[in-house]
Amino acid sequence: MNFNLKIYFMPMNFTDYCYDMPPKIHIGVTTCSDSLCVTVIEPRILAGHHIGNNVIRGCFSSVFRYGPTPSTDSFSASDTSCSRMPAYKLLPPHLAKRASNRTVELCWCFGQLCNDFPSAESSGFTKQSSLSSSIFLLAFVALIFYWKLLI
Per UniProt, which keywords does this protein have (predicted)? Predict the structure, then answer.
């Protein structure tokens, strides 16, 4: 089994146009009525050069295979927030041990179809308040401890 399939559910839609969707290209959408919306952006590196990004969008509950969906009660529902983090922080402990040192950009939001991918400049992503980022990271740390108890 591919390592990514151990972490993520198989996407229902595929496109190479995540950043610039032409008018005639449409991909299906999924409503996230009981989950927060997420976008995971992982840089593709070939021979040390950035050649693009892998982008996964969807509901938290239908993107990640492990862990309960974080509660949205403690988060601000104002805007999309993003945080750069080591990829291993999104993994359960038994997979985190094998993870590389890559970082991913994790963006999250609340509300239907809010994760249409925030417009990103080539040098960075949208900024968020440090408080909401800290709360979200704290929720993931709690999930990791929860997974450890289950294993």
Answer: Membrane, Transmembrane, Transmembrane helix
